[in-house]
Design brief:
Blueprint (H helix, E strand, L loop, with lengths): L2 E5 L5 H12 L3 H6 L6 H17 L3 E8 L4 E11 L5 H5 L13 H19 L4 E9 L8 H16 L3 E5 L4 H6 L3 E11 L5 E10 L7
Helix pairs in contact: 1-3
């Protein structure tokens, strides 16, 4: 089985949006934000966002890994490579999301996006860096090297530019990121309370400094 890395094209957007909405629908905070799950409306909103980013945002790098034996996209990643310092107005765009029109929890979505924006701003502010927004792999293809290809692309780009990388990691994904040189610098604790009565984590805040070697 050969897995091939490439930049995604507009034609790939529907499949990548399907991966994002279906995989993340199992995430506890996702169920708070989108209790209706991976609806058609939600997928169309995600597709529209990716089409807009690919056409208008030069910092956006949407990459895919394809199983050459089937031609199916089985993993994807969204990187933003910020090569210059960003002011408050540009930073504020990070808190602006296109939420699904059928979500019954719009207030929760807006609160979450503001908290996420604040946590990112506190760590790196407007400094140049590479931001890993999300990484997703089809369940049956995990631990076969797809995620490593997607992460390595970002590490190499960051090293070329002398930039740190930043991400929010799930508990499941954290060990993989640590192998790629990321270290935990904080915890994004949301205002949402889980079934255990504790505030839900939005991920471990992690940074990779340029030049750090994969373990």
């Amino acid at each position: 089985m050969t897995l091939t890395l490439a930049h995604a094209t507009p034609a790939d957007v529907p499949r990548i949006a399907q991966l994002e909405t279906e995989i993340f629908s199992a995430w506890p905070i996702y169920r708070v934000l989108f209790p209706l799950g991976a609806t058609v409306s939600r997928k169309l909103v995600v597709e529209a966002r990716y089409h807009h980013l690919l056409a208008n945002d030069p910092s956006t790098h949407l990459l895919k890994v394809t199983d050459d034996s089937t031609g199916t996209i089985i993993a994807a990643i969204l990187w933003n490579v910020y090569t210059h310092s960003r002011g408050e107005e540009e930073l504020a765009r990070d808190s602006q999301f296109d939420w699904s029109p059928d979500t019954p929890s719009l207030d929760a979505c807006l609160k979450y996006s503001r908290q996420l924006y604040d946590s990112r701003k506190q760590i790196l502010g407007g400094k140049p860096h590479c931001l890993l927004r999300w990484l997703e792999t089809e369940a049956e293809y995990r631990k076969r090297g797809a995620a490593t290809q997607l992460l390595t692309w970002g590490s190499q780009k960051a090293d070329e530019l002398g930039l740190p990388c930043y991400l929010e990691a799930s508990d499941e994904g954290k060990p993989l990121y640590e192998k790629h040189g990321y270290v935990e610098v904080g915890d994004f604790i949301s205002d949402f309370v889980g079934e255990d009565g504790k505030n839900m984590s939005g991920g471990k805040l992690m940074i990779r400094q340029p030049g750090v070697q994969k373990q």
